[in-house]
Design brief:
By secondary structure, this protein is α+β, with helices and mostly antiparallel strands. The strands form 11 sheets. It has a 10-stranded antiparallel sheet, covered by helices on one side. Strand 26 and strand 27 form a beta hairpin. Helix 8 crosses helix 19, helix 10 packs antiparallel against helix 11 and helix 14 packs across helix 16. The two termini are 40 Å apart. The structure holds beta-D-glucopyranose and 1-deoxynojirimycin. The site of beta-D-glucopyranose (BGC) has 6 residues, from loops.
Length: 816
């Protein structure tokens, strides 16, 4: 069942009923001011840090769902009937029309009732720290409509964690000012904060409210605010309790006409020595912010700002576009997957319906993998990100598992010891170099643990990453796992028996020998990439050493990591195998099958094909590939968090979508385009659109997890938006299945397609030139590209010769 449809032309997803299975959200903002917004206008906004600078309140995990948002009430002053175009927060008021269009960094929600239509456009303009709400109210009756509009937001007292817990203080601190129709929220501005929020409108107001209880009335909710019901705001000034912002605007709309009303919600900071006006008073100095407010209350600025936002996305998404025989592929590659990659670039794992914006810093491994999805769109910012991440590395090559985006420092609460972490830095830098060819990054001086004076080249950081693994090998010669590897829940040294103790931070037991076959595969891949980087720098001697290390580790995997028909997963604290036919549960895990083959292990001796056949036989389901089988049926203290989940969820046998593209890529490496593409479609959200009532999450973005076959809710997705799934699927489809793959020496066109395809076309901007690519393949053929025709000239192989900057080059790739 569908709850909407794709409008590919407009690059929007159109939701045609408000009661989607879960709130289906979108993101506002592109650089420093951000927000989430659901299809019923739920959500909140923040400046840079979703915990420390939260502007508005949202009630996570509430009943009813999705409480708190950017609401507009429309009241017919002739009858007293009131409603909201976003359906929430007045769901009892049926709408005659409803539509939500989620676009790229904007959302448009239209509702109509009783002959009045209200269209709300929400967006945060580029280069500003504010959001615009543009309301267009149309009267479709044949008599004039006398209406009252009420805007509504609830302010968060900045630190979202404190705001949700510290009531003994917070019920006393709330403060506002209201001047010329603009509401200023200034809690704690009187003391150490230099920032405040404002909420303004371009219309004359007939009143306002800033104290929640005055607006709602005692014991009432947002579904029936007293001020809206009676049709008159109370001009309340908040003193403590819950400051809100609500304007009361009266308009008359003539038959067939449309009135436009603008609201602007924003964040501003003042220099500490110019906070108050007049100096010495307690009144916000508004001289600094007034020009911005005035500008954005002008409809012409809003039109231009919205056009600029659309142009911004045109430019970003123009880097890779494809036209294949499959619409679900086209729209994910050209629009939604790329967009999701940019959202993960901006927000890492901080803010979604599943991440409350207070918990997690930027992950070392997550950020390096996210790079795969955005480096081609914003190489300069990818470069900056790499240098930030590398600067948190320790001299041992070890890495803090997370760092804080505001300070860019390693996060001591989580600490280090996730032994896969350092290797991801090599893989992230390799992706950057392949995309840009910018070798200068390798010579950038980068400190350890942000300590001034400790700078060495980025290249030296990469060497230490590799060294970190080699310095920590276990009894089989496989890498020690530490706290965990990519699978955060495989906690082999933890032995936790205390309720609620966090598996990620519990003091590890010492003396164990837990080893990871996954890290071994990842090491082989990373060592080969570092050899490639060394070769670029003409360090042939080093390249030989890294290749030899990769070779040796491959041998170790074949000897101790192979189980007969698939790669084993690990050895535990006591040296007992995990992910083997010898185990009663958890016999086969997906991660080493993917990562070992990505490293090239087993490609020559047939182990790769065998491992992938085992995945197909034992792990693949119609909804995607599950993480392991059989799922653990009880808690196992020696395995940790993985067995804390009921069977079929998350790491315990869920379809952990992040791992699926590894298998797709591995399948292309053994030449199996049919299977690779089949797996791709199983979790492609657009291809799952018809399963709306099963899948339940947004059909336009990937979710981290889909419940596995052991779960009663098999096929149900959770944790949409902020997941490494986005970047990896983008890499799998664009670089491996469609084969448009940046390499150290240039762009390859090396697709591994489904047999029945006859080719596809693509445009790829790469290192300053534009390549117009046509892949031709006879139906039924399963081959690879044998040669290219570059502007009609034959070139053997699949490597496109680099064109001069600004050039446009026609490339035909011939598959035989
Ligand atoms: C989740 C993992 C996540 C980890 C770290 C666990 O509860 O299952 O997917 O990576 O927490 O926050
Ligand atoms: C989510 C985490 O963000 C990621 O780092 C981890 O690899 C996966 N969960 C698997 O546990």
């Amino acid at each position: 069942m569908r709850y909407g449809h794709f409008d590919d032309e407009q690059r929007e997803y159109v939701i045609d009923r408000p009661d989607t299975p879960l709130p289906w959200i979108n993101y506002l903002g592109t650089e420093s001011y951000f927000g989430i917004i659901s299809n019923t206008a739920g959500g909140y906004s923040f400046y840079r840090d979703a915990r420390l600078r939260r502007l508005t309140r949202y009630r996570y995990n509430n009943a009813p769902l999705d409480v708190g948002g950017r609401y507009l009430y429309v009241r017919d002053d002739a009858t007293g009937d009131y409603w909201s175009p976003s359906w929430q927060p007045t769901p009892e008021r049926d709408l005659d029309e409803y539509e939500c269009r989620h676009g790229l960094s904007y959302t448009r929600i239209t509702g109509a009732r009783g002959g009045v239509r209200a269209e709300m456009l929400y967006f945060a303009p580029l280069d500003e720290t504010l959001e615009v709400w543009r309301a267009r109210i149309t009267n479709t009756r044949d008599t004039a409509a006398e209406l009252s509009l009420f805007s509504s937001v609830e302010f968060c007292l900045w630190d979202a964690q404190d705001d949700a817990t510290n009531y003994q203080r917070n019920f006393n601190t709330g403060q506002v000012e209201v001047v010329d129709g603009t509401i200023y929220h200034k809690t704690e501005y009187r003391e150490r904060r230099d920032h405040f929020a404002y909420f303004a409108t371009n219309r004359e107001i007939s009143g306002f409210d800033t104290q929640r209880e005055a607006f709602l009335g005692p014991y009432r909710g947002y579904d029936r605010p007293a001020a809206v019901e009676t049709g008159q705001a109370t001009d309340s000034i908040a003193h403590g309790w819950q400051p809100i912002g609500s304007h009361h605007v009266k308009i008359t709309v003539n038959p067939g006409e449309t009135e436009e009303v603008l609201f602007v919600l924003g964040y501003a900071e003042n220099p500490r020595d110019a906070k108050f006006d007049p100096p010495g008073s307690q009144t916000i100095n508004k001289v600094t912010v007034e020009p911005t407010i005035d500008r954005w209350l002008d409809p012409a600025t809003v039109e231009q700002g919205f056009a600029d936002l659309r142009a911004h996305w045109d430019a970003l998404l123009g880097t890779v576009t494809v036209t294949t025989p499959d619409d679900d592929t086209n729209r994910m590659v050209n629009i939604w997957n790329a967009y999701q990659n940019m959202v993960t670039f901006n927000l890492s794992r901080s803010t979604s319906l599943y991440e409350a914006g207070i918990g997690r810093g930027m992950g070392f491994r997550d950020s390096n993998q996210d790079l795969l999805g955005f480096v081609h769109m914003i190489p300069a910012r990818a470069r900056e990100r790499i240098l930030d991440i590398a600067a948190t590395q320790k001299t041992t090559g070890g890495a803090y598992h997370q760092y804080q985006p505001l300070t860019k420092r390693g996060n001591n609460d989580i600490g280090e010891g996730f032994n896969d972490d350092p290797l991801w830095l090599i893989l992230g830098v390799a992706a950057y170099l392949k995309e840009t060819g910018d070798q200068s990054i390798l010579d950038e001086p980068v400190p350890f643990d942000n300590a001034a004076g400790s700078e060495v080249s980025l290249y030296e950081h990469l060497r230490r990453s590799l060294r970190y693994t080699l310095d920590r090998l276990g009894p089989h010669g496989l890498p020690l796992i530490g706290r965990a590897d990519w699978n955060d829940c495989l906690n082999l040294n933890c032995f936790s028996d205390t309720p609620g103790e966090p598996f990620q931070t519990t003091e590890n037991a010492s003396g164990g020998v837990a080893e990871s076959v996954f890290i071994a595969g990842q090491f082989v891949l990373a060592a080969k990439e570092l050899a490639g980087i060394a070769a670029l720098r003409e360090q042939e001697g080093e390249a030989v050493v890294y290749r030899a290390a990769a070779e040796k580790m491959s041998g170790t995997i074949a000897e101790h990591g192979w189980d007969g028909a698939w790669f084993r997963r690990a050895y535990d604290f006591h040296g007992t195998v995990i992910g083997s036919g010898e185990n009663d549960e958890g016999q086969i895990f997906v991660e080493p099958q993917g990562m070992c083959v990505l490293g090239g292990v087993g490609l020559e001796d047939g182990l790769a094909v065998k491992a992938l056949d085992s995945v197909a036989a034992r792990l693949a389901t119609p909804h995607g590939i599950v993480l392991q089988q059989p799922a653990y049926s009880s808690y196992r203290i020696e395995l940790g968090e993985i067995s804390s989940y009921p069977p079929g969820y998350k790491e315990n046998g869920g379809i952990f979508c992040h791992t699926n593209p590894w298998i797709m890529i591995a399948e292309t490496m053994v030449g199996n385009g049919d299977r690779a593409f089949d797996y791709y479609r199983r979790i492609n959200p657009s291809a799952r659109e018809d399963l709306g009532e099963v899948h339940r999450c947004e059909p336009y973005v990937y979710a981290q997890m889909i419940a596995g076959r052991d779960a009663p809710t098999h096929g149900e997705a959770k944790n949409s938006w902020l997941t490494g799934t986005a970047a990896w699927n983008f890499a799998a489809i664009t670089q491996w299945i469609l084969g448009l793959r940046p390499d150290f020496d240039g762009l390859r066109v090396d697709p591994v397609l489904p047999a029945d395809w006859t080719g596809f076309t693509a445009t790829r901007r790469f290192r300053g030139a534009t390549y117009e690519i046509t892949v031709r393949k006879p139906a039924g053929v399963r081959g690879r590209v044998t040669h290219l025709l570059v502007e009609g000239e034959r070139v053997e192989g699949s490597l496109v010769p680099l064109a001069t900057e600004g050039g446009v080059v026609r490339v035909e790739a011939i598959v035989e």
